[in-house]
Amino acid sequence: MVSVSLMCLGLLSLWVVRGEVAPNFDNCKEFFFREMPVSGLNIALPTPVETNTQNLPNPEKCLSAYNAASPAYICQIYNNQYYFATLYDRGRRIPLYSAYKMDIKGEPERNGSVVNYEPQLVHPDLAKDQRKMKECCIHIYNNILMNDCTESVPQYQPKYKLNWSQAVHDDFVSYDRGHLNPAGHHRRDASKATMTFTNVVPRNPKMNQWNQYEQKLKNVLSKGCSNMYVVTGVVPSNDWVDQNQRVNVPSHYWNAFCCTDNNNTPIRSGGALCPNTHEGRVTEYNTVAELQNVLGKDFDIELNIFFNRCQFNESYSVPYWKCFLILVIWIIVRTCKKMQMKRIVCIISYKLMPILSRTKFPLSTLTSFKGITQNYSQPTSNINMDTHLSHHKSMKSKKVFGLVLCTQRFLRHHRIFS
Q1: Residue that wins the pLDDT comparison between 168 and 114
Q2: In this structure, are strands 94-101 and 227-235 parallel, antiparallel, or unpaired?
Q3: Nearest-5° angle of CA 233, CA 371, CA 29?
Q4: Omega before 71 cis (within 30°)?
Q5: What Rg do the C-alpha atoms of the chain give, in angstroms?
Q6: Distance between CA atoms of 20 and 198, rounded to whole angstroms?
Q7: Which of 50, 170, 289, 389 has the least CB density, counted as fewest CB within 10 Å?
Q8: Taking the model in full, what pTM does it have?
Q9: Which residue has the higher pLDDT, 105 or 213?
Q10: What DSSP designation does 277 have?
Q11: First-to-last C-alpha distance (Å) of the chain
Q12: Which domains occur in the chain, in start order?
């Protein structure tokens, strides 16, 4: 034991990553929409209990770390700043979900690999800092000495305690380390903060479609958002990485996002579900409500991911008649200019256009009917609106498409076409 500790001391270096284990998410509520954490996800298994306690000296004190409540609420810190929140299932040794705000504006980064562990999952008196395994052993060893625990007892040794409390490197020999909060959704320190074993679960190495969905979430679905709240979780299964049932292998990944404007008003929401298999296909949902219904019906997982399900309030949209009128006048003005016409209708339209052009068309107008993938021209159109908008960066282009979409809502509302 002493030699292990000396080795750890020799390798000890400066670290800045922290993971604060607490009874709730009060210290990191900002990563949830309207500061309301996910509720109803009561599926965590109890903390594993050490059964081989015969002839152990001072077991009440030296094994007290294994009596912690499950799940654990972890506020993930890097450089003294909170970056996301994780609900950790101690019984299955996996995170049930991670909640974060996506870095929308910056270029994504992915630096390093998953190397950090959570000392406070071993014992609440240990440091908040997430550390590498050889660094964790120092703090665990010092705690052993402080509590007069015999270091020769296998159950009291640092690595044994660390392995008992959480998943470790060796648990991922046959699996990828699947991030719930992906490093590619962040920049700089926020990206580095995701490199912890409390943020990953065993993922099928060929689960490629989920990686593609994560890229779409960043590059397409976040367009037009001022804030992008994301919660990614898993559906636990009856499968484990080994016969000892140390670490659970989830059956599915799920994701929910809530896109808001600069007033934190919902613009749109959506989600996805994918089986944790190499042939798994991602199923996308146009609203968080749809995803929650599927999780409840098919997997018996009842939860509320976002406040009020991140529902869009129709009162924020432009009235049907107004957007239709604006589009008609806009077409008249364009026609008059092209044909160099000076009829009375052109003159009136020229006068009205500056007034009507002040109407704002938030992206909520574009997506308030059947989600972001709703077609914007004809019912048979196969064009994804947001993908198309990504090629039209100017506000003028967005307003034109807003007029088209708003008018389509008017026509469908009055059954002019369906």
Answers
A1: 168
A2: antiparallel
A3: 40
A4: yes
A5: 26
A6: 11
A7: 170
A8: 0.72
A9: 213
A10: S
A11: 74
A12: 2-310 (3.40.570.10), 314-413 (no CATH)
